[in-house]
Description:
alpha+beta
Amino acid sequence: MKGRDWLVAEDGKYQVCKSVREWDLLRDNYRLYRFLTEVEDVLNSVEEESSCLPEIRMLVRRLIVNSYWVRSQYLQPSPTTGTSVVLLYDELGFPLTVQTVTFAPGTISTIHNHGTWGVVAVLKGQEKNTFWQRTNSTEFQDKIEPTGDIILSAGDIVSFAPGAIHSVQAVGDEPTVTFNVYGETDPKERFEFDTIKHSAKKF
């Protein structure tokens, strides 16, 4: 599952990053529990968690390359909402969110940030990510403008700084399936943005 690695900064600017070769990531019996432990160890070794995004992207790619189980843990999208979510690990006090998300073709998310860092790997299909930045408008504090967009395909991984703003659209003829891992969300910093009213509300 060869792909590119991306980094999206707080200001909505994005860049391609160096990716590890898949054959350097092959491991025997590399399972979700080992991935979670390694991510936790990486995060515990630093004060600023988002500085670890290159290492976490590598660990996500290692997990995707080696774990058929993770790649198979998803649901068909809901006919009502166009999405579905499978929580892969849930333990009281564990600070990470680890899940797969499915979008039906054409489904568009709200414009939002996550209030924490995040790493998303595309497992199936394609999605368009549009990135945004605040305009520092004196009239509208929460006014945002797009900074660009990229199409992600199976094998691509995108990582987000905590304040990065984006929206997602599933493109193509098949559902898009992603593996997502997020840090501990700060609910005071997670917003959904309205580009008509130039407002932001807690998400």
